[in-house]
Design a protein that fits this description.
Number of strands of chain A: 2
Strand content of chain A: under 5%
Helix content of chain B: over 70%
Number of helices of chain B: 3
Strand order of the largest sheet of chain A: 1-2
Shape of chain A: globular
Order of helices and strands of chain A: HHEEHHHHHHHHHHHHHHHHHHHHHH
Structural class of chain A: mainly alpha
Structural class of chain B: mainly alpha
Largest interface: A-B, 10 and 14 residues
Order of helices and strands of chain B: HHH
Number of strands of chain B: 0
Oligomer: heterodimer
Shape of chain B: elongated
Helix content of chain A: over 70%
Radius of gyration of chain B: 16 Å
Largest sheet of chain B: none
Largest sheet of chain A: 2 strands, antiparallel
Strand content of chain B: under 5%
Chain lengths: 634, 99
C-alpha cells in the first residue's frame, strides 16, 4: 500500500513528461488527481495507524533487494511511522492544495503540463525521502527533490537570471549533499548498516567512538544545512524565489526546505549522544533564526521577505531539534503549523502578484485589502499565525520552542531564550511591515494595475490553508496530543517531558507566553509606527539609510562572503591546478618524448648509408673486443 | 717448418681482405676481398686442426666453403641487379637505406 504513495505521482510525472503536447489539455487534471490520490492513500494509512497501539504503529513494506555486495545489504524498504506520516500528510495535503491553486495560477503558461509533471516528480521524490527506511533510500529522495527544485526554480529558464538562480540552488545543495554522502559512508564503516534501525542499534550498542558519532552528526548537519537553507549555506533560498509562486509555497516554504529538520529528527539517536554535533545544531539554528529575520526586515520584494522568514522559522525548528528529546516533537509541530501558514501566505503573495501584473515590489502595492478581500483575510490569518498571536497555530508551536530554549539550562538557556524572543519580536516587525505595505496605506500602484480578486481555484486552497493556520496549533496542542503521538519515537517520556512540571522550568510557561507576546507587541508597534496609517512609503527604496540596512538589503553580504571566501579562491585553485597539469604532468610526459627524440636524432647520425663505414665499425668493434681479451689475458 | 708461418699468412691475407673491403668502392672487388677474408680464416682453421691433431677445423673449413659458395650466388645476383638498374657497381652509390 505504501508504495502507491510514491508510485502514483511518479507514474503521473512520467506520463506527463513522455506524453508530450498531446496531454496539454488534461495535464493539470492528471497531475492534481495523482497528488490527490496520494493524499487519499496517506489519509487511509494514517487512519489505519491510529487504530494500532502506540508501540506498534510503524509499518514497513519491503519492495526488493536493492544492493547486495558481500555482507552489505540494502533493501528498498518503505517505513511509515509517526514521524513520516506527519510529512506524508503535509506533503500530499498541502501539495494537492497547491496543485489546485496552480491550475489557475499557471493557466496562461504554455508549459503548464510540464509544470505539473515536475510538481508530481517533486511529490514522489519527497515521499521517497520521508518513507525510505535507510539513509541510502533517503539519499535518493534527497537528490530527487533537489532535482525537482532545480527544474522548478528554473521553470522560466528563458530568463537568464532565473536559470542562474536554479543553478545556484543546485550548487549550494550539492555542498550539503557531500555531508549526506559522508554520513552514509561513516554509518556504513562504523555500523555496517545504513538503515535507520541498524544505525540506531549500533549507536545503542556503543559500536562507535564519540568522535565517530560527532563526525556522523556534523555530516548530517551539513546535509540539513544545505537543504534547509541554514547558515552558512542559506544564500540560495532568496534567489530560489525566481520559480513560480506555487513552487515557492510548496518546495521552498512548506516541504523540501524542512527536509533538514526531518533528517535531524530522524537521526535523533545520533544527536542524542553526539554532544558537539548537537551543540552545533543549536548554534546553526540560533544564527539562522536571527539571520533570516534581519534580512526579512530589509526586503521590499514580497516573496524574498517571505523566503527570509522561512529561513528564520526553519532556524527555530533546527534550534528545537538541537535541544534533545524535548525538542523534536516541538520542531515537528512548528514544521507542520509553518507548513500551513507559510504555504498559505505564499499563495496569498501569488494571488497579489496575479492581480498586480506580477509585480513583486511591496512599495508598489498598498491599500489592497478592499480589492482582494479573500486574499487579505487568508494572508492576515497566516500573518497572525506566524507572529504567534493566540490562539493561532504559530503561538502554540513557537511558544513551546521559546519555552524549551529557556529551559536548556544555565547561560545557554538564557542566551537561546533571548535569541528566540528577539527573533519573535523581529518576526512580528517584518511580517507587520509586509502586511501594512501590501494591504494597508495609500495606493502606490504602477500605472495600468487593476487589482482584482483571484478565481475560486486559487482562493479555495488559500482558505483551506488559512483554516489550518488558525486551528492546527490548537488541535495539536489539545491534551499534548501531538507530543504523545510522537513520543514512542523519540523516547520523550524518558526525559520526563510528557508530564509538565516533572522538570524544573526556568520560568513558568505562563510567564514565557507573556514575554513572547510582549516581544510580538513591541515588534508590531514599531512596524505600525514606521509603516502605519499616514506614513508615506516612498515608491523607491530610500538610499540614505544606515549601513545596517544596506547590508541587510544585500542579504547580510552572504553572496559577497561566499564569493570572496569560496568562489574566488576556488577559481584561483583551478587556475593553479590547470598550470600544474600543463607544466608538471604534461611536461613530464612531453619531456620523456622529447628526450627520446633528441637521443635518437643524435644516434641517427651514425647511420650514413655507406656500407663501408658500417664495415669499419664492425672491424673496430672486433679489434676492440680482441684487444680487450688480449689485455685481460696478460 | 713451423706451422706459425701459416698463421702469419692467414692474418696477412685477412688484413688485406679487410683493408680492401674498407677502401675499395667497386662491389665486385669488395666481394673478392670478402672471399679473401673467408679463405684466410679457412687457412687458420686448417692450421689449427693440424696444430691440435684434430679434424674439427678441417670440417669447419668445408662448411665455410659451402656458405661462401651460397653467398657468392646471392651476392653476385644482387650486384648484377643493382648494376642493371643503376648503371653503377659502386657501393657508395647504393646508400638509400638510411633515414
Amino acid at each position: 500500500m505504501l508504495v502507491f504513495l510514491i508510485a502514483i505521482p511518479l507514474f503521473s510525472a512520467a506520463l506527463l513528461l513522455l506524453g508530450g503536447r498531446a496531454l496539454d489539455k488534461v495535464g493539470h487534471f492528471v497531475g492534481t488527481l495523482a497528488s490527490g490520490a496520494a493524499f487519499a492513500v496517506g489519509v487511509i494509512e494514517f487512519l489505519a495507524m491510529l487504530r494500532r497501539a502506540p508501540e506498534s504503529r510503524a509499518v514497513t513494506q519491503p519492495l526488493f533487494t536493492w544492493i547486495e555486495v558481500g555482507n552489505f545489504n540494502v533493501g528498498a524498504t518503505l517505513l511509515l511511522d509517526q514521524l513520516s506520516v506527519c510529512f506524508v500528510l503535509l506533503i500530499t495535503g498541502v501539495g494537492t492544495l497547491i496543485h489546485i491553486y496552480s491550475i489557475a495560477y499557471m493557466s496562461h503558461d504554455r508549459d503548464r503540463r510540464r509544470f505539473f509533471a515536475f510538481l508530481n516528480l517533486f511529490i514522489a521524490a519527497m515521499l521517497l525521502l520521508v518513507l525510505g527506511d535507510s539513509y541510502l533510500s533517503l539519499y535518493v529522495g534527497w537528490e530527487g527533490v533537489g532535482l525537482a527544485s532545480y527544474l522548478l526554480i528554473g521553470f522560466w529558464n528563458q530568463k537568464p537570471a532565473y536559470a542562474t538562480a536554479a543553478k545556484k540552488a543546485f550548487v549550494a545543495n550539492r555542498v550539503g549533499d557531500v555531508g549526506l554522502s559522508l554520513a552514509v559512508m561513516i554509518a556504513f564503516v562504523q555500523f555496517g548498516s545504513v538503515s535507520f534501525s541498524g544505525v540506531a542499534e549500533g549507536v545503542e550498542a556503543g559500536k562507535a567512538s564519540s568522535l565517530a558519532l560527532n563526525a556522523l552528526g556534523i555530516a548530517l548537519l551539513l546535509a540539513a544545512v544545505g537543504k534547509s537553507a541554514q547558515f552558512p549555506l542559506q544564500s540560495w533560498l532568496g534567489d530560489a524565489m525566481a520559480g513560480p509562486t506555487p513552487v515557492s509555497a510548496l518546495i521552498h516554504a512548506a516541504t523540501m526546505v524542512t527536509a533538514g529538520v526531518y533528517l535531524i529528527a530522524r537521526s535523533h539517536f545520533v544527536f542524542d549522544v553526539a554532544s558537539i554535533a548537537q551543540l552545533l545544531v543549536v548554534i546553526v539554528g540560533a544564527i539562522t533564526l536571527l539571520f533570516g529575520a534581519i534580512i526579512g526586515m530589509a526586503k521590499d520584494d514580497i516573496k524574498k521577505a517571505l523566503a527570509a522568514s522561512t529561513m528564520s522559522q526553519i532556524g527555530y525548528m533546527i534550534l528545537a531539534t538541537g535541544l534533545g528529546p524535548v525538542g523534536y516533537a516541538f520542531a515537528m509541530m512548528h514544521l507542520l503549523t509553518h507548513g500551513f501558514f507559510k504555504a498559505g501566505m505564499f499563495l496569498g503573495a501569488g494571488s497579489v502578484m496575479h492581480g498586480m501584473n506580477d509585480e513583486v515590489d511591496m512599495r508598489k502595492y498598498g491599500g489592497l485589502r478592499k480589492y482582494m478581500p479573500i486574499t487579505f483575510a487568508t494572508f492576515g490569518l497566516g500573518y497572525l499565525a506566524i507572529i504567534g498571536v493566540p490562539p493561532f497555530a504559530g503561538f502554540y508551536s513557537k511558544d513551546k520552542i521559546i519555552e524549551i530554549a529557556l529551559d536548556a539550562g544555565g547561560a545557554k538557556g538564557i542566551i537561546l531564550g533571548s535569541i528566540t524572543l528577539l527573533g519573535a519580536a523581529i518576526t512580528a516587525f517584518y511580517m507587520s511591515r509586509v502586511m501594512l505595505m501590501t494591504f494597508f496605506g495609500a495606493k502606490r500602484w504602477e500605472a495600468g494595475a487593476h487589482p482584482h480578486e483571484s478565481p475560486a481555484l486559487m482562493t479555495i486552497p488559500m482558505i483551506l490553508l488559512a483554516i489550518g493556520s488558525v486551528s492546527a496549533g490548537f488541535i495539536f496542542n489539545m491534551g499534548d496530543r501531538f507530543i504523545n503521538f510522537l513520543a514512542p519515537l523519540f523516547h520523550a517520556g524518558d526525559s520526563g517531558h510528557s508530564g509538565h512540571g516533572e522538570k524544573e522550568h526556568l520560568l513558568p510557561p505562563i510567564v514565557v507566553s507573556a514575554l513572547a507576546l510582549t516581544a510580538v507587541a513591541i515588534g508590531v508597534s514599531i512596524a505600525i509606527a514606521k509603516y502605519g496609517r499616514g506614513k508615506a512609503i516612498p515608491a523607491v527604496a530610500p538610499s540614505d539609510v544606515s549601513l545596517w540596512t544596506k547590508v541587510a538589503r544585500r542579504d547580510l553580504l552572504q553572496d559577497e562572503f561566499n564569493e570572496t571566501l569560496f568562489m574566488r579562491p576556488g577559481q584561483e585553485l583551478t587556475k593553479a591546478l590547470a598550470v600544474i597539469d600543463e607544466k608538471v604532468i604534461d611536461g613530464a610526459v612531453r619531456g620523456v618524448g622529447s628526450i627520446t627524440l633528441d637521443v635518437a636524432s643524435g644516434v641517427r647520425k651514425t647511420q650514413t648509408g655507406f656500407v663501408r663505414s658500417y664495415a669499419l665499425w664492425i672491424i673496430v668493434g672486433a679489434v676492440g673486443i680482441l684487444g680487450a681479451i688480449a689485455v685481460m689475458s696478460l | 717448418m713451423s706451422l706459425d708461418y701459416y698463421l702469419y699468412l692467414s692474418a696477412l691475407l685477412f688484413t688485406i681482405g679487410a683493408a680492401g673491403v674498407l677502401i675499395r668502392r667497386n662491389a665486385i672487388v669488395v666481394f673478392m676481398c670478402i672471399e679473401l677474408m673467408l679463405n684466410a680464416s679457412n687457412l687458420a682453421f686448417v692450421t689449427f686442426a693440424r696444430m691440435n691433431g684434430s679434424i674439427d677445423g678441417q670440417i669447419f673449413a668445408f662448411f665455410t666453403m659451402v656458405v661462401a659458395a651460397c653467398e657468392v650466388v646471392v651476392g653476385l645476383a644482387i650486384i648484377v641487379t643493382i648494376y642493371r638498374s643503376r648503371r653503377s657497381a659502386s657501393v657508395d652509390d647504393a646508400r638509400l637505406l638510411k633515414l
